[in-house]
Prior knowledge:
Layout: H1 7-18, E1 35-38, E2 41-45, H2 58-71, H3 86-99, E3 103-107, H4 110-121, E4 127-131, H5 136-145, E5 148-152, H6 157-165, E6 173-178, H7 190-200, E7 203-207, H8 222-225, E8 234-238, E9 248-252, H9 254-263, H10 265-269, H11 275-290, H12 293-312, E10 323-329, H13 331-344, E11 346-347, E12 350-351, E13 361-366, H14 373-390
Parallel strand pairs: 2-11, 4-5, 4-6, 6-7, 7-8
Antiparallel strand pairs: 1-2, 3-9, 8-9, 10-13, 12-13
Amino acid sequence: MRQDPLEYLSSELQTLREQGLYRRLRVLDGEQKARTSIDGRLVVNLSSNNYLGLTTHPRLRERAIEATRTLGVGSGSVRTIAGTMQIHMELERKLAAFKRTEAAVVFQSGFVANAGAVSSLLDRDAVIVSDELNHASIIDGARLSRATIKVFPHRDVAAARRIVEGLPRQTRTLVITDGVFSMDGDLGALPELCDLADQFGCIMMVDDAHASGVFGTNGRGTVDHFGMHGRVDVQVGTLSKALGALGGYVAGARALIEFLYHRARPFLFSTSHPPAVAATCLAALEILENEPQLIERLWDNTRFFKTGLNTLGFNTGASESPITPVIVGDGPRAMTLSDRLFDKGVFAQGIGFPTVPRGKARVRTIVTAAHTREELQFALDCFKAVGTELGVI
Length: 393
């Protein structure tokens, strides 16, 4: 009988179970909404990136249906052969105008937008100076580039400066940060890092996945929020979170985008978006421009919920965004908090190692514009009850 070469995976999974870190996938029974059915239970959903509630917006639904009827369900090819449709070019033009850059290119996901951009722009002779809490897609892109990777402590611009100052002159250097850090909800030190990049001639890059549709004028991101237009060379954003659809994009100078057309492997070797996805993204951009009250409601809800958690005595870290972690520390305890909340009708996913460092396990919450005040108060009441029961507060 053939020995199973993957037998070790079962052992790894058993270790996760023994550590209290094994998680099964929660399954939505219906739409991605603020209150929804998950695993057959009606819950207040505090784990979705659907910041503005656009996944079910009537205009996005209509555009998706219309595009499918007129253009079909798929593009049938990669962008560089027969898969570039007029609707893809229109989306890229609208994204560039929205981000106030010369051009933009759309990728199949935010992950591959980051990984594709970083790995394409640099080679083994370059250096990447990266915040230690940057997203996994940045880390993977950096590894694929074969550039030397230098990591500075989270938001420690002085440490980043020491790294850059110690490099040989004329070294091609990329300084990169998240705009909003996805596990802690704090902002990158973008203005100070832009100053550093300007002084030493570095390429400046920001991943604005969790800032798109959330920060800045009409949701233009942290570059707009901090007034850094013209000082960030590579802006990455997502179409999958606040915009309610699917995909990622890179915005910047026309030369940057045309280079990515020729060298970014995810662009070259992945079938382009179905017309329905591009159409919904266009509709979402229109909503950002014309319905700023959605972003205002998001922030009203965020302030209410964050204040409630802090008043109850939970540790929410350094969050400055709708991402508000409830930091517990111990991994199994965080998972128990998450499970007990679910039993009471609140879905807030537990996060442990390796997604966050050991000893910093948490339940991560994300408030959206679609939540009602009653839903958020219900969630706070559940946090109070379970947090007290477990001795977290």
